[in-house]
Amino acid sequence: MRRRGEVLASAAMVTVVADRESDIYPAWASVPQPGFHLLSRAMVDRRLVGGGTLFGAALGFAVAGTRKACPRA
Questions:
Q1: Nearest Cα to 1, choosing from 24, 21, 30?
Q2: Rounded to two decimals, what is the model's pTM?
Q3: Which of 10, 27, 43, 58 is the most buried (most CB within 10 A)?
Q4: pLDDT tens digit at each of 73 positions of the chain
Q5: How far apart are CA 31 and CA 51, in angstroms?
Q6: Euclidean distance between the first and final Cα of the chain, in Å?
């Protein structure tokens, strides 16, 4: 993570995908600038700094899109 600035300096967009086993606190505390996206899957509801919880906050997110599952053949 320390070298990401050097290695990805010329990238127009960077997306990091973190699974539920990753430690999200350091990652979310250091999201550096526009063009850097951090996607995290959470298994456990977590408290947020301004109050409330992660799952509670997510209930207020706008839906970006939906899809139908493909039926199994």
A1: 30
A2: 0.53
A3: 27
A4: 567 667 777 888 888 888 766 777 777 777 667 888 888 888 888 898 899 998 999 999 998 888 888 877 6
A5: 20
A6: 42
